[in-house]
Amino acid sequence: MATRLNMLPEDCISTVLSLTSPPDASRFMLVSSSLRSAAESDIVWDRFLRSDLPRILSRSHTQLNVSSKKELYFQLCDSILMDGGIRSFSLDKVSGRKCWILSARALSISSSNEPNHWTWTANSTSRFSEVIELKTITNMEIEGRIQTEDLSRNSTYCAYLIVKVSDQSFGLDSIPCETTISSSTCSVTSIAYLCPLDEKKQQIESLFFMNRRRMMEKRVVEGECRRPSKRGDGWMEIELGEFFVGEKSEGLKMSLMEVKGQQLKGGLIIQGIEVRPKCEQL
């Protein structure tokens, strides 16, 4: 195939490669010097960049120093800060679909400005200048909003709360939290715990507190109970739910709340909410 492509004019080769995918175009760069030039062409990478990208990049807080559409694509794959540094935008490396992270400052968190309940602090492992740590509170509500026009159409997305749990945490798993993904047309609610499964701790709780745990769990909605999973950046993520982005532009609300247990809790560190394409599409 490479030999046949070499017989075509470079512009024609670039047009053909623009109909493939970013990974395919990257592989063709390694085949030969002539194909490399065609694969690096702006004709190819402009096709992989979304048509509404100029509107989104007008909100950039990061200085973009690029000399080609290919460089722009890969810089966006590494993510850039947006909206004064309170959001992060990136492109999925494989599909080119749009991804966002809303920092804790971009979220609505109950009592977040009350120092008795929460504290804002820097964290060297966060991409944002601040994270928020729960000191102590009874009712906790965390909500993020995004417009579907900022996402890729005809795609299934998942939303995740990015967290850490401090060594001094307490009361976080006395009752599952309720997670909700809602729009003007539908709403889906599930449940999730804030701490990863600790088998030793679970055995102790089963021995001494099982009746109380079962009573508390009856207060929340039924559904698949999720646990945090590890991320590659040292944080954990809790899936809030998934949703499909069609042709219609609308507002979307993503939330996690625990308001039924009446249990003091503390030690949760929140970086933000990530919205990214569902893995099956990669």
The secondary-structure element order is HHHHHHHEEEEEEEEEEHHEEEEE
Helix content: 10-25%
Structural class: alpha+beta
Largest sheet: 9 strands, antiparallel
The assigned CATH architecture of the largest domain is Sandwich
Nearest-integer average pLDDT: 86
State the CATH topology of the largest domain: Jelly Rolls
Protein name: Phloem protein
InterPro entries: F-box-like_dom_sf, F-box_dom, PP2-like
Q: How would you describe what is shown here?
A:
There is one protein chain. The protein is α+β, with helices and mostly antiparallel strands. Helix content is 23%, strand content 33%. The protein has 2 domains: 1-48, no CATH class; 100-281, Jelly Rolls (Sandwich). It has helices at residues 2-6, 10-17, 22-28, 33-39, 42-48, 53-57, 69-77, 199-208, 210-217, and strands at residues 80-82, 87-91, 98-103, 108-109, 118-121, 131-134, 140-147, 155-170, 177-182, 187-192, 225-226, 229-230, 236-245, 251-258, 266-277. The strands form 2 sheets. Strands 1, 2, 3, 5, 6, 8, 12, 13 and 15 form a 9-stranded antiparallel beta sheet that branches. A 6-stranded mixed beta sheet has the order 4-7-14-9-10-11, with no helix packed on it. Helix 2 (10-17) crosses helix 4 (33-39). It is elongated. The two termini are 25 Å apart. The relative contact order is 0.17. Residues 203-209 have low confidence and may be disordered.
Keywords:
F-box_dom, six-stranded mixed β-sheet, F-box-like_dom_sf, 9 helices, nine-stranded antiparallel β-sheet, Phloem protein, 282 residues, Jelly Rolls, 2 domains
